[in-house]
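Colleagues,

For the teaching module next term, I've prepared a clean inverse folding example: a structure given as tokens, and then the sequence designed for it. I'd like students to try predicting residues themselves before seeing the answer, so please don't circulate the second half yet.
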């Protein structure tokens, strides 16, 4: 039984959290993210802006949560 086969331990101390956009699949310095784990980078966000946000909030396409843009 393998438990943590997919876990790469490359982090040392001082954890640097990297984001990975679920839309373009690239690692990003920053992504809008949701409690469900969904992440989207600002570039993809802009592309989907019309469908995700109208103002100070955006809606997670995965779980439908309304998220604040902060
Ligand atoms: Zn992206
Ligand atoms: Zn979500």
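(Answer key — instructors only)
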């Amino acid at each position: 039984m393998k438990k943590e086969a997919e876990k790469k331990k490359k982090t040392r101390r001082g954890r640097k959290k990297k984001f990975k956009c679920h839309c373009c699949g690239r690692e990003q310095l920053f992504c809008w993210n949701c409690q469900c784990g969904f992440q989207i980078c600002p570039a993809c966000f802009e592309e989907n802006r019309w469908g995700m946000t109208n103002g100070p909030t955006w809606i997670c396409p995965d779980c439908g949560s309304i998220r604040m843009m902060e």
